[in-house]
Amino acid sequence: MTTTTIAAPALTASVAGPRPSLASFGPNWFACVMGTGIVANAAATLPVQPSGLLEAARVVWVLDVALLLVVLTATAVHWLHHPVAARGHLDDPTMAHFYGAPAMALLTVGAGALLVGQPLIGTEAAIAVAAVLWSAGTVLGLATAVVVPYRAFTTHRVGVDAAFGGWLMPVVPPMVSAATGPLLIAHLPAGDLRLTLHLACLMMFGLTLVASLMIITLIWGRLMHHQVGAAAAVPTLWIVLGPLGQSITASHTLAVTAPASLPAPYGDAVATLDVLFGAPMWGFALLWASLALALTVRAARTTPAGLPFTLTWWSFTFPVGTLVTGTSGLAAATGAPFLVVAAVALYVALVVAWLLVASRTLRGVWFGHLLRDPGTGPAVASRA
Q1: How far apart are CA 35 and CA 314, in angstroms?
Q2: pLDDT at 5
Q3: CATH class, 19-378 region
Q4: Domain boundaries of the chain, sorted by first residue
Q5: DSSP-assigned letters across all residues of 173-194
Q6: For the residues of 208-250, what is the DSSP string, one character each?
Q7: In the chain, N or C terminus with fewer CB closer than 10 Å?
C-alpha cells in the first residue's frame, strides 16, 4: 500500500498563522460566482413572484457580475505571479475537477442577464452578454468535460475510496449549457439556427446525463464500501444535486422551445420531456437531498469541532439552486400545487444557505484563512 499526499487548500480549514496570498488561488473560487448567480436566476423562475423579489434578484445579479470580474482578475494575477502552482492544479487529483466551475460561472452570469438583467442593461445588451458568455462557457465546459477526465484516466493517482462529488464538476457544464441555451433560442430567427442550437443542447444534455449517472454510481459505491470519510469533504455530496436538478431544468427549457425549433413530430415528442423525464428525476433528487442532509447533520454532530468551513460549503448553494429551477419548471408544466410549495420552500433554503456561506467566505477572506500560502496549510493523505 502506498500513500500519496495531496495538498488540498480547498478542503481544509486554516489551523495556524495564515498568510494571505493568491498562491493557493484555484478554479474552485468560481463556485462563489455560481452559488451567487443561481440565487438571482432561481428567483426569476419561481412560480410565485412576491413584490420586490425580482428587484432583489437584480441586485444579486449585479453583485454576481462584480464577483465574476474579481475572481477573473484574481485568477489572472495568480497565473501571472504563480504560474507553476497554476499549472499544477490540473495535475492535482482533487483540484483538477474544479476546472468545471469557471465554465458554469460564465453560464450562470450569462443566463442571469436574460432572466433578471434586461431592465438594467436593456434587451439588446442582455442578449449580447448572454450569447457571449454562453458561447464561452459552453466551449470551456466541453473542453473540461474531455481534458479533466483524460488527465484523471492517464496521470492522476487515486485510491479506491477517492470518488467524491467534485468528480462531477468537469462534466456538468454541458448540462448547464443545455439548460440555458434555450433562453437564446427565442431570440434567433426560425430555421437552421434554432434547429442547430436546440440539437446541440439536446446532445449536451445526453453527454452530462450519462457521464453523471456513472460518476454518481461510483460515489454511491464509495459510500457503501468506505462510508462518508472526512467531514471537510461531506459538503461535496451536495454537488450530486447539480446534474440532477440541472437535468430537470434542462428538460423543461428544452421542452418549451422544442415545438418551435424541431420538425414534427420530434418537437412535440421533446415537449413531453419536462414531465416524463423531469418528474422521475425529481424523485431521485429528493432522495439524494435527504441523504445528503442526513449525512451533513451527522458529520456536524459527530465531528468534535463541528463541520469545518471551507470553500466546499458553496456546494450548499448552486446544486440546491438547480433543484429550485427544476422544481419551478415542473410546477409550470403540471400546475401541481405541491410543486409550487416545494419550489418556494427550496428557494428559501437556498437563500438561507447563501447568506450563511457568503458571510463565512467574506470572513475567511478578511482574516486570510481562505487566502493563505499553501506552504502553511495542512495536507490530505490519499491512499492508493
Answers
A1: 6
A2: 37
A3: mainly alpha
A4: 19-378
A5: HHHHHHHHTHHHHTTS-TTHHH
A6: HHHHHHHHHHHHHHHHHHH-S--GGGGGGGGGGHHHHHHHHHH
A7: N
